[in-house]
Amino acid sequence: MSFQENAEALYTETFDDISREYEQLIEIIDSEHVTLNTTNITAALSLQAIVITLIILAVQLTIEDPDTADLISEQILAVHRLQTKKKTIIQVIGSRHVEITLSSLEIAVSVQILTDVLTALLTELDIL
């Protein structure tokens, strides 16, 4: 498998894992004047998966022992899986004039931390 194919497969696997752990169910029944504001959760999850993929690829490229690189990569994914579980269920039944706002603040914070980790890793490896 080429590097590009490996990167694409890793991204797809990471995104699928993150998406599966982030569930939202919004049910609005018999309501009037409901406003629902959401940010683009899928884009935020995709960005998160990209940064995780870049960290894992950097680890795999810089650690010469493939077994050690794979072990570290699996640990990175395992820790992140534990942190990303989120389930949101909102039901609005028989209500009027309801405003619901959902955001991806947790994902944005996670992406910032992951970006800092990636920057530190690349700096330590003298790539940046």
TrEMBL record:
Keywords: Capsid protein, Virion. GO terms for cellular component: spore wall. Residues 23-63, 71-127 form the Spore coat protein X/V domain. The keyword Manganese does not apply. Pfam families: Coat_X (PF07552). GO terms for biological process: sporulation resulting in formation of a cellular spore. It comes from the Bacteria. InterPro entries: Spore_coat_X/V. This is Spore coat protein. It comes from Bacillus sonorensis L12. The lineage of its organism: Bacteria, Bacillati, Bacillota, Bacilli, Bacillales.
